[in-house]
Amino acid sequence: MSSGSDYDSDTSFDQPGNISNFLEDREWPNTTLVATLEELKDVSHPNTQDIIGCGKDLTESLKVFSLDPEIVQPKLALGHEWRRLYTDCVLLQCLKWLKEKSKNGSSESDGSTKEWEQAIRLLDQVIILAGAPGEGRLELVISCISYIQHWYLPLGIELFELPQKSSQPPTLSLATNSVVMIAPPPSLSAFPALSQRPFVLPEFASSWPATTKWKSKSYLVSCAGRGRVVPVERGGDYRTDDWAVELMPWSEFLDKISWGEERDDDNKLYLAQHSLLTQLPKLRADIEVPDYAYAEPQSHRCYIGPPGNAEQLVINAWCGGKGANSPAHTDPYYNIYVQIVGYKTIWLAPPEASLGMYAFNTASEPSHRDDDSTEPSRDPKREGMMGNTSSIDVFALSAPDASEPSFPLFFSHSLPMAQSVMLKPGDALVIPPGWWHAMRGVGRGSFSVSFWF
Predict the structure, then answer these.
(1) I want to staple 353 with a disulfide (CB 3.0 to 4.6 A). Which of 109, 144, 211, 414 is the partner?
(2) pLDDT digits over 83-112, tens only?
(3) Are the C-beta atoms of 270 and 324 separated by less than 8 Å?
(4) Predicted structure pTM score
């Protein structure tokens, strides 16, 4: 399920040194706008060099605020230069709005709430659709969002109430083989050899603040602030005809999946394989990158190298309500999959099981990225990535009462090699490259974070 865009899924950055001074400075939009325009006039600057390939007319229109982002958006798939142009187009437009409002001394009371929500949506689209490429651009996008929220869309103070602890759901056996449990966690030097096969580190992340804080819907909303949108999958899963991705307000998504509530809605919405912790940096502080992600991995016939970003690490979030699932697929990276909130059933099978997995377009190879990151709002059908995805529902076929006639090779060849496990909050599952794996949320909802390296 790996795919590609233009930014580092775990880009680290610092907000301005004194955040209160930055937010309280009514001149910040003007000084930042002037500095950005001066940068774009310097043809030797890397950020300016990036967009020259889009043509002189468009780049000149950009500098005089006459370039509409909607003109550029359809061209994002054409290359890095178009994603750069779109990024700067939205940034300059938003900085211009902020400059005008700051000059007038406007605040939320001027009745422009929808206007500012639209501005934040555009800035989020820069992150989600384009990857906010360019030197310092991701930082600037996040800063613009913070500034708008501070002055025009403040979030009221709300107490964070944690839901009552839910009982552990019953474990459903989907395979005769269980995933190995290793406790205590192995040494860094022992990890590469062990990671040639899947294993679980019980309670590995139980001390992370995320395992407690992310249970609270109000906390998750507060970390985002007002107006934020995220890519949400709607439908069964990305193999089906009714599957689609749409941008949805973060707070609305959490409401629709009844996050942190006692209701047991079966709402098929899923935030999957998205760099949420880049988009919402406050959540990034609630987790830790496992040291294992920086270990030198052993060679593996399905491993073609780490992600192509600077850190050689991609961090993705997975959040959904009851029944949210990822179909059986393979990835070309090592993966440490950490269960943060809720429970998730995992089905796994080795690369040798591929004969009976009935993959789409079996002649295609798993996608490997050479650029800077992973695209959160993926469309595997459009991008020709289905060769690493099984066409069968391994959860249904692994059930004790499943019938065999339709997929004989799955039952005779793949299922005998399969393993299964139910992850509970704080557990970490290590998945080697090339291993088939399918995930399904169990109970009211689940939140997971994956580390590809």
Answers:
(1) 414
(2) 999 999 999 999 999 999 877 766 655 558
(3) yes
(4) 0.87
